[in-house]
Write a structure and sequence with these properties.
The chain is α+β, with helices and mostly antiparallel strands and 100 residues long. Helix content is 40%, strand content 22%. The longest helix is centred in the first third of the chain and has 27 residues. The relative contact order is 0.16.
């Protein structure tokens, strides 16, 4: 019975990177030489981005791309969120109470 669950999980994973690839192609269109900024601040090509997106999804990350400026050129900005990231918490909480 677990096999069906694994297949669904793999299908979900595959759809996540296919959706990400489609987002890339929707933004890029017919343009060539579009620079891409990865989260580690490296600049790569669109084909390299597609591989990075696929690898990231298979590692469990949530990924997204958006149009943005890379240096002085219009390009893509890639994002990925760790699998255990809680959107409700943005990091260590600061004590903003004036009394301590």
């Amino acid at each position: 019975m677990n096999e069906g669950r694994d297949v669904a999980s793999n299908a979900e994973i595959e759809m996540r990177w296919v959706d990400a690839w489609e987002a890339v192609h929707d933004i890029v269109g017919d343009r060539r030489d579009v620079p891409v900024l990865l989260p580690d601040y490296s600049v790569v090509t669109v084909p390299e981005l597609l591989g990075w997106l696929q690898d990231s999804v298979y590692l469990g990350y949530a990924v997204r791309v958006e149009a943005g400026w890379v240096g002085h050129r219009q390009g893509l900005i890639a994002h990925r969120t760790p699998p255990d990231f809680d959107e409700g918490r943005s990091g260590p909480q600061m004590n903003t109470d004036a009394h301590g």
